[in-house]
Amino acid sequence: MANPTTQKSLVLYKESTPYVVAETPVPRPGPQEVLVKIIACALNPADAMVMDPPYSRTLIKEYPYVPGEDGAGVVVEVGAEVTSLKEGDKVLFQGTMSTTGATFQQYTVVSPEITAKIPDNITFEQAATVPLALTTTFMGLYNQSPAPENLGLRLKPIWDPEGATAYAGTPVLIVGGAGSLGQYAIQLAKMAGHAPIITTASPHNAALLQSLGATHVLDRTLPAPALLAAIRTAVVASGRPLAYALVAVADGDALRLARDALPPGGALGTVLPCLSHLPPDIANPGDGKRVALAYGSPSLPFTRDTALKMYEHLTGWLEQGLLKPNPLEVIPNGLAGINDGLARIKAGKVSGKKLVAHPQDTP
């Protein structure tokens, strides 16, 4: 059956206006691309942030703009030079910030190099929760690029034999463990052998985070002095200093907690791409502490090599259960339900799970 020539997409025609469902052309893949029919796409805070200044003015290159960075679906057309994928393959992938490569639509074009086949033990919905959050966490921790733009922690990567053992028994702190990025950060820390793995979250998410590998789940609503005391108790008991602190949320108080928990010279990881997005007292933390940034894109010149390594191993990690997708909730009405879902995210009404939509179910 021939692929359709038009599709339903979620479109932004002007900044600071709602997304609307519109009919757009179905893109055709180039010789080194594939066309994917999107079965599931996941919502991220960035999809709401990009609607308004300052992000709309720095990230959106042209209008109309189609958002969406998390996707999973079926390959339905293969470019002439593609050999790694075939029609019918189930894949997960990260969308690009372009009309032809976004995921809040029914079809998109993807580079096969930055896709992973979905193993049989993972659903399309689960697969869609993975790409953006895992990429962002990965780049902040393991990007080895020597480029000056790479301001990540540059830890020894878990796919290298040395990286699989170098951090065994060293404590880490992950602030904001219940979010999508936090959940993947906890699992990566476990894969790297870190212990204890200390995180903060709402108490109702404690069992989930412990199942992912957290050894200490501290109530995020406690006053900062109480949290710092609990963190230091766990670190002292380990007999080793914090290897790093990663803040998996964009929140000033969370960043200050992690900064204050670090010893002099410690490394503070963030999930933001620019120092200008950080409060001044975090961008310049003092005591010889350094701040690391994360670029959540697999397609930049200084992130591509690390992204290729991640996608090379991703299917196996999911199949073996080393990485577990986020818990999720499917929202109704396909693409038409995304505005309401993003409003819930902005209002802080989504905790410990990711919202997922079915573009093919759009009325």
Report on this structure.
The chain is 28% helix and 20% strand. It has eleven helices and 15 strands. The relative contact order is 0.15.
Portion in helices? 25-40%
Shape: globular
Q: Structural class, from helix and strand content?
A: alpha/beta
Distance between the termini: 22 Å
Largest sheet: 7 strands, mixed
In percent, how much strand structure appears in the residues? 15-25%
- Rounded to an integer in angstroms, the radius of gyration calculated over CA atoms is 20 Å
What is the N-to-C order of secondary-structure elements (H for helix, E for strand)?
A: EEEHHEEEEHHEHEHEHEHEHEHEHE
Our count of helices gives 11
Average per-residue pLDDT, rounded, comes to 96
Number of E strands: 15
User: Could you list the spans in which at least 5 consecutive residues all have pLDDT below 50?
Assistant: none
Give a nutshell description of this structure.
The chain is built from eleven helices and 15 strands. The protein has helices spanning 45-49, 55-59, 124-127, 131-142, 180-191, 206-212, 224-238, 252-261, 280-283, 304-320, 338-346, and strands at 6-11, 20-25, 34-42, 70-78, 90-94, 107-110, 115-117, 172-175, 197-201, 216-219, 244-247, 267-269, 290-292, 328-330, 354-357.
Task: Throw out a few tags for this protein.
seven-stranded mixed β-sheet, alpha/beta, six-stranded parallel β-sheet, 363 residues, 11 helices, 15 strands
